[in-house]
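Why this split exists: single-chain examples teach little about how molecules sit against one another. For that reason, every record in the complexes split bundles all components of an assembly together and asks for one structure covering all of them. Below is a record exactly as it appears in the raw files.
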Amino acid sequence: MSDSPDPPAPLLHLEVQQVSVVYSNGHHALRDATFALSGGTICALVGVNGSGKSTLFKSIMGFLRPSAGQVRINGQPVAAALKQHLVAYVPQAEEVDWQFPVSVWDVVMMGRYGAMNFLRIPRAADKAAVEDSLRRVSMWDFRDRQIGELSGGQKKRVFLARALAQGGRIILLDEPFTGVDVKTEEAIIDLLRELRTAGCIMLVSTHNLGSVPEFCDQVVLLNRTVLASGPTADVFTEQNLTTAFGGVLRQFHFEHSTIQEHDGRTVRLLTDDERPLVFGKDGHLEYKDREGREDLVRQREEQGG
Amino acid sequence: MPDFLTPFHYDYMLRAIWVSALVGGVCGFLSSFITLKGWSLMGDALSHAVVPGVALAHLLKLPFALGAFVAGLLASGAMALIKAKSRIREDASIGIVFTSFFALGLLLISLNPAGVDRKTIIFGNLLGIPDKEVWQLVIISAVTLLVVGLKWRDLMLFCFDPNQARTIGLRTGLLHLTLLTLLSATAVAALQTVGAILVVAMLITPGATAYLLTDRFGVMLWLSAGLGIVTSVTGAYASYFFNGATGGCIVTLQTLIFLGAFLFAPKHGLLSARRRARANAEATAAS
């Protein structure tokens, strides 16, 4: 019930063709970037800070005019796609003024402005779209809250609802999982999967490497240009990631000595973007060469309580 | 005849009161956008930067609003240019441009002392405002009210999230220019009533006060306009008893109301924030 009766969603194409962006201070932010996506897909955009992720986003949203190359959406230039409200953007939390006197409902309604008349007075269809979007992200009960009173995860869902209300078919998400609890992360991923089934293209910029293989079917690796793009299994390899991140990526090697027969060859790894915490069957993998000294490990465990 | 009705017996006082109500309302209306967009300093700068335009308009026998308007746009253009093309920060570029313009204005006035009274520009002269200038104020106010009344939602989105405004196809460049133009125009209008130095109060204080009192933009808009009208009318009336210091009366009143809101606002006031903090501390202690 969100939009006028959905036409059998035409296949969606996003093409970034040899895009180069040079800023006015001479900084070459992006050079010869090329990739293509077709809906529905969830594509991760991965790279270090300063690798050109936000520059790429800005080019797709038409904020920047590439000094060479072009972005085409369904074969048309970006400006034409914007007129049809095809591109929606879910901003990073830091970009938003959370003290602005607007409610959750107001923010989601802003997604409808493009479709409204000159005075932007909401019609029944607009209100229905806003309600529907809020219910889909389970934020309907919070509709009258001022946006600053929400938790990190709720804030994210409000802006996701705005993208839904807008009816965007190409959705750009900038770091959607920072400051978000695990439950919300799962809820967001479920929603993205639904949208993929509906034929949308989602481009997700993220530092959360661990979750990429879980929900992204494609990956674009970026470092001032597109290093690799394509299906996750082909692109998201150790070799490619090492190239993309250089020395920046934290590494943790599981050698023969760390993972022992004793653990049944299974480990759990917890990370907080810092040194990951790795667990074997009997707790923290702290002792090397525990084989043959299981008693000692157990003893320490008991002492630790 | 009680004393407090005497101001209403003079035509010039009646006119001063309704003119200041109009200007105060329009400035209040606009102040919601200015404070939320973070353009307070810009408002201050523009109100000073229009002075050479006013002086030149007097010299050339043109409507003062036209001269002020051109000067305002030139100044904001110069600020944008310096910010874009040099490494100087925005606040410094605003400082450089508006003081240059203001200095030029003072120079022009002293070269042509007969044209315009320096005191009028700096302190305003609501009580002695000539008819043709009243008409200019009415036109400025009508246009501003019309534009804001029709497009306030677009302007709100532009202040809140210019990126979203662009992605759904709003012309943000045009919205930016519109807001800047309205700001220049109302700065000129307020110049007449309270003078160049106090203009910025008219353009900020009502919005800032309303911001403390509500979490809804629509409410904030009406509240700030209402505050602008009430303080301006009361200030103009009171100035009869204070030797004509209209600007001083209006702005002092606005400040008093702001202080009240700062302390006692139901949600964002100092006292209620303290009360909340104490309640939280007790709740933590109890649990």
